[in-house]
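Hey, I'm writing a tutorial for new members on how sequence and structure tokens pair up, and I'd like a real worked example in the thread rather than a made-up one. If someone can provide the structure for the chain below, I'll link this post from the tutorial.
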Amino acid sequence: MRLAGMAIAALAALALAGCTPQPSLGPTLDGVTPAGRPTVLASDLETPWSIVALDGGSTLISERDTALVKEVTADGDVNLVGEIPGVVPGGEGGLLGLAVADDVLYAYFTAAGDNRVARMMLNGEPGAYSLGSPEIILYDMPKAGNHNGGRIHFGPDGLLYVTAGDAGEPDRAQDVTSLGGKILRIHPDGSIPADNPFEGSPVYSLGHRNPQGIAWDDEGNLFAAEFGQNTWDEFNAIEAGGNYGWPIVEGRGDNPDYIDPLLQWTTDEASPSGLTYIDDTFFLAALRGESVWAIYVRDGEASAQRWFTSDHGRIRDVAPSPQGKLWLITSNTDGNGDQREGADELIEYRLEEFVEG
């Protein structure tokens, strides 16, 4: 049985006016923690879903229900970059994840009959970007009113990783011929890598319910965050060809056929979405939990620390700024939970070294 080691230290913490020192997370733990007061970099966003920092100093943000890509400049101006054609928003579907490589924008979106990934040129310069014509490079990921997955990121191997939900039909997650309930891996042109674990298939791992966060550590190891159903959300170390158990197992199952999560939370503590890695620390955006979880992985075990509980409402995505700070976007206009006054925001926190010995 390929069981990941597990040590849960789900330590709740409030950071109301600013971040305060947190309890010990264990011996010889290095990493970073948020510090200081938040800086709002942009507001008046509508159902933002994904953050991508560009080398030129600007940031791209996708809006789920408008199908718009917006640019936040280094000066804080918000500009329209373009609308992704073919997006059919509905429920949790719409324009979801973004990724950029070599002046090409990649977008995951819900179309009329499925979920797709398109690529298009990102033309122009900071303050005046525009989009070229899209080319569909991946399709046939099942769509529904929920469980659409939607995160895309380039890995250290230069390949594009895509999270696809089970679209409300759990058995898809165990069906290798279906793209639902999977993490997928493709070349930037959509072709299938020869070393994928299932020959001729983009499937990289299976047995997922609704994964929405992926990130790599400094050693190139892949990790993912996943919505549970009624009991457990998960943080998993991803192996090529690994089976993570859904719908047979939710959370830890101690079943030799499936890989157990490194961490699990009750669904009201997390409902995880975006995931990122900064300075030996994973940061996980929590929607229903209205938090950011800092996660520290050492020697196959993980511990977690909770930040910003209810300060900003629902949090959809997290990302490193070009300066190594922590960025997050809120998701209080997405029709779930209590609607907060004001539009959603892009928020920045500085990070400071955290060492417990």
